[in-house]
What we know:
Blueprint: H1 6-19, E1 35-39, E2 43-44, E3 59-64, E4 67-73, E5 76-80, E6 84-95, E7 103-105, E8 109-110, E9 112-118, E10 123-126, E11 129-132, E12 136-142, E13 151-153, E14 162-164, E15 176-181, E16 187-192, E17 205-213, E18 217-224, E19 229-237, E20 240-249, H2 251-256, E21 262-270, E22 278-290
Parallel strand pairs: 1-10, 2-11
Antiparallel strand pairs: 1-5, 3-4, 3-6, 6-7, 6-9, 8-11, 12-22, 13-16, 14-15, 15-22, 16-21, 17-20, 17-22, 18-19, 18-21
Amino acid sequence: MNQFTRKRLSILLLSSALSVLVSCDKFKGDQTIPSYIHIEKISFTTTDTQGTASSKITDAWVYADGELIGAFELPVTLPILKEGKHKLMIQAGIKMNGIASTRIYYPFYKPAEYEVTLYRDSVITLSPSVIYYDNVKFVWMESFENGGSSLEKTSKSDTSLVLTSDHQLVFEGTYSGLINMGDSVLLFEAATMNSYSLPKNGASIFLEMNYKTNNPLTVGVMGIGASQTFQEPCMVLNPTETWKKIYINLTPTVDEMTTALEFKIFIGAVKSEDVDQAQILVDNFKLLRFQ
Length: 291
């Protein structure tokens, strides 16, 4: 559970695609009238040292007595051909990289567990709440709430990230990061001031962040080797009129940088020709791995 290999990822993605619809095979056997479980949403909480509780949990991965019943988009009332006392486990599902076709359960969220009594043709309502696993390592976090930023512009950038306290722009708290790109600003790029050690063995590495932008925004990884630095974009975030939460899988990118000794996270943008004034807002970066 602590390592999220590519092979495991492929299996999960296939399972997700196949199990969003309940298989007819689940209704074979002696029981023909199902019990029902209703899940409106899955909430998420953090401690004082774990940063924002912002999340984008879209699905519930439901297990009964260790058996995967299916992955279901929330809210859902799902049938289950079981009755009596059973152990249920609910894992919080997300859209990896913000893509609907890559739905997985988030490996850093500890599942909610229940012991329930199921009754045929009756509905039990569950309100799962998940937390981070105890052994999650917060490699880098930036919420801008200390009045500074651990992101600095690179030598190629025409402008810098600044802090804004405008309540109409801030996502939560007091500050968010702001990048303005006018007519004279064509390129923005900033990277973490510090570099970090990350595993290259297929272990799960994700970047969480909140963003709102009217201009495409690139997120990627810099791999720092003994004699050179490699830079690889991971994905481009499309413009959005509202704040969004995204979970970006960095595992494949880090694995491919075989000669890198340490890593930095970078964000960048080229001003679109059809945007008069590009405005990019970011907040709540979390670079996560397991200890």
